[in-house]
Write the structure tokens for this entry.
Amino acid sequence: MAIKSLNDCVRKFLFCSVFCLTQCVSADIKNVFTAAVYEHNLYLPPVTPLPLPRERALEIMMTNVHVYQEQTKIAALKGANIIVFPEDGVYGMVLRTRALLFPFMEYIPEPELGWNPCQHPDLYPETEIQFALSCMARYNNIYVVANIGDKQPCNVSIDPSCPHTGYYQYNTDVAYDTRGTLVAKYHKYNLFYEFQFDKPSKPDISVFSTPFGRFGLFTCFDILFEHPPIDLICSHNISNIAFPTAWMDAGPFFTSVQFHSAFALGLGINFLAANIHHPSRRFHGSGIYTPQGAAGYYYNTSNDSGGQLIVREIPVVDQPRLKACRGLNSSQPFLTDHIHTTDEAVQHDDEKLQQRSITDADSETESLYYDKASINDAIDGVNTIPEEKGIRPYQHKAEIHLNAGVASDASPLKINFTQTHTAADNYESTDAAEKANSSETEAQFVDLDSTTDSVRFPNNTNSVISLNGTDILLRHELHNDMFQYDLFYDRFNLVPLRLEGSKTSVCHTDLCCHISYSLGRIHGPGVENQTQTSNEFQTACKHSTYHFNTTEDSEEVDVAISNSVNKREAYEDEFYALGAFDGLHVYEGRYYIQVCTVIRCRK
């Protein structure tokens, strides 16, 4: 009897222990977390003929860090679990030589050493900025991500790449946990004319874990390349990105809020983007972006505007959008190594594009703003496999569907947008006749540099391919009124959207863009905004329990600005066009892009 009672007691104890453990573990798994990003109106150092002494450099940096400390306290009081600060936010972006920047650099040890600067500030000399950042995290119980300069010693006698100063200089992101311990650092791999920094020999894969997910780090210009962004997201299953940036807007396709929100939505990740605030130089636009759209953002182009803290509670994302990664192959040699090759053909294209003017008075274009709640599954895969020099490094088949409602400027355009990539390396024609048909279709694509005249395509072009064992019919309803125009130094193929039309297509090399649309005349300013809701994303937003508030920040500015009555009356002098570009962009950097766009043009 005593033994039976003892067994019952043991069973009850084990049950209670397991139940308690289960409850405790469940309590630690968060469904939401609170993120903060700060757009910093930074204090810039003076540009002097000679480097400043370390003491003066430290004084300048601490002016900016004091602002960080204040904003971190505010974010923590609002319940933030993590805060991200911008690239160049501590010392600015005006120190363009290695010598001028050197006094602002600090030695940053490897995170594997588990160093806590706040607890052990004297372990490494001249690490005052790291001490301040670490204590910010520790005293406010918050994860802190910031961008500072890392100087790593090297030996000139044994390392032929070692600079004559004996130090490599890296543009570096650092992350500290809630105790102030350095848990991650990342050396920016894709530098944008940053001659004061060294490029790492290979891209870092920098990841740190939190109770609300694993975070990856990369910086600004990196976002346009395969390495490390796609490595992190698709190979390492990272669904949260902390993104310090000094992003200069370049319309119509590279504005901060537009690009970063699309990146998050397309790949199905949380994306915390912190930008510096310098509107006179077009540095502005920060936000907290999710797979459901922008949770909150700040975009203010006024020169007298200041920085802004954005704090939002957002859902935890366990993994990125898997179908966005389908077909990606990030185990291949580095795409950036291929892109930065400079054979004669690419140099020639670069020179021609640099000389082109985009100020044609009769063809001024304006980017159409899409409502964030109308974009659906924006990316379905891009295969970035480098090949020989001069050959496009990726060819992949995918479908991209964008449903965009009427823009908030009451423009009379409703569209359903489909993008098709043609893949030469992933398919075989189903029979010889179809292969011949496919070859003929491929031959009809035109090298844009070979002509400036309008290109004529057949009205209907069909091809059948086999992708992963599945036959797919591609129907390209191409029209013979195509024209070409330079947008941001890339020559697009475009077709006008007619008032009587309902659908059209346009192709450029391996990319075809299809659109279903309706156009109506505007009779006055009181046209009601309309948004299509027949896509998965809008349905998810409509029924979501997370209602993102974009009005909490007092100075938050909506990207779309209402047209004036005069602009509406001038609609008869304008038209819309569908455009496509698939190729190497060589103005201010080299990277491959594929773009489907709707633009508004003057007649």
